[in-house]
């Protein structure tokens, strides 16, 4: 098939990934390409040149409109609207069999566009106001909608999801996150350094538990890091920067436990699955889809409960390392994910809502 992968353009679709959405889009394009599909990535022009890129914008918009300064601003909205309107027009004229929409932009959801080019839209976020009603009004014969968890599905459609919407778990390549039979007794945390990911709470819990912790990830909110995280560093707590995939997998795999501390309604938790693939049990805040995704491979505390998370760390350390790895192999592999994507593409092209039931 000739497939357009439409990404968001806040960050580059390239390593080191700024977050789960960038990783998702990169691995989707790479995986479909490896399966023999003709893939064009519609993303920022400074994304990974290994792909055939049709630039939505010349460079990712964080460079031009920093999120902290321009979130929701009229200039940013106008910039994105013009870019996505033109990109969607090029997709419609490009002879694509299907478009996989990861953009979180309303134009790609319009029924006139999904009728012109069958579309699968993957929703990576809770139902925030700027997108909520566009999603709900986008149901059409040639449009499929996916969410990453039952928790996220119920948030988008508390009255019950339409047959065109289904759960599509994110998947990883277990070979890129290799299993290690033993850890070094320490803890790891990975994610964007921002308040809603809770790295300061992970650091506090590790100190409380008396376990060494290394934090990894991009510095999304430097002011937060300076005020809340940096004072906790030193001794048993350190920050090791933003590593590329192979280096990060090696570093995570050495640890004995992973801390997952979402302080918002996290729809999935890709970083937890990556760590689980390496054999790390998880101590997590029971927020968003954490229990649903981590399952028997973790122990839990209520969001913000540092003492409870420290107790959960001890409980998680008692979980055999094969348990998290087995859970990933059963539910969250790259091949399972891509198989389901190809099925959804066929359903969108067929335009029969009963196929998604």
UniProtKB/TrEMBL annotation:
Stretches assigned to coiled coil: none
Entry keywords, A to Z: Transferase
Record-linked Pfam families: Glyco_trans_1_4 (PF13692), Glyco_transf_4 (PF13439)
GO molecular function, one term: glycosyltransferase activity
Organism domain of life: Bacteria
Domain Glycosyltransferase subfamily 4-like N-terminal: 19-175
Protein name per UniProt: Glycosyltransferase involved in cell wall biosynthesis
UniProt source species: Sphingomonas abaci
């Amino acid at each position: 098939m000739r497939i357009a992968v439409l990404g968001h353009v806040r960050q580059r679709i390239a390593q080191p990934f700024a977050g789960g959405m960038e990783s998702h889009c990169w691995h989707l394009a790479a995986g479909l390409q490896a399966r023999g599909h003709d893939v064009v990535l519609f993303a920022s022009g400074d994304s990974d040149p290994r792909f055939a890129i049709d630039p939505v914008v010349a460079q990712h918009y964080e460079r031009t409109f920093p999120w902290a300064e321009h979130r929701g601003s009229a200039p940013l909205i106008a910039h994105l609207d013009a870019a996505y309107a033109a990109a969607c027009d090029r997709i419609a004229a490009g002879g694509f069999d299907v478009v996989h929409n990861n953009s979180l932009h309303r134009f790609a959801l319009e029924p006139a566009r999904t009728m012109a080019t069958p579309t699968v839209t993957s929703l990576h976020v809770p139902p925030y106001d700027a997108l909520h009603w566009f999603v709900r009004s986008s149901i059409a014969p040639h449009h499929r909608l996916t969410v990453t968890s039952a928790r996220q599905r119920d948030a988008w459609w508390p009255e019950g999801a339409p047959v065109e919407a289904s759960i599509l778990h994110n998947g990883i390549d277990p070979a890129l996150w290799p299993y290690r039979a033993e850890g070094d007794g320490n803890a790891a945390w990975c994610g964007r350094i921002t308040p809603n990911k809770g790295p300061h709470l992970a650091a506090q819990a590790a100190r409380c538990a008396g376990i060494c912790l290394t934090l990894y990830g991009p510095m999304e909110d430097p002011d937060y890091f300076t005020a809340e995280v940096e004072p906790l560093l030193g001794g048993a707590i350190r920050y090791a920067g933003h590593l590329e995939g192979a280096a990060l997998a090696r570093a995570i795999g050495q640890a004995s436990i992973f801390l997952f501390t979402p302080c918002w309604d996290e729809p999935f938790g890709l970083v937890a699955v990556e760590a689980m693939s390496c054999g790390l049990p998880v101590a997590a805040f029971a927020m968003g889809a954490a229990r649903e995704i981590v399952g028997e491979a973790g122990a839990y505390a209520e969001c913000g409960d540092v003492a409870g998370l420290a107790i959960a760390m001890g409980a998680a350390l008692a979980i055999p390392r094969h348990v998290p790895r087995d859970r990933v192999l059963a539910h969250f592999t790259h091949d399972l994910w891509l198989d389901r994507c190809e099925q959804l593409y066929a359903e969108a092209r067929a335009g029969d809502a009963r196929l998604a039931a």
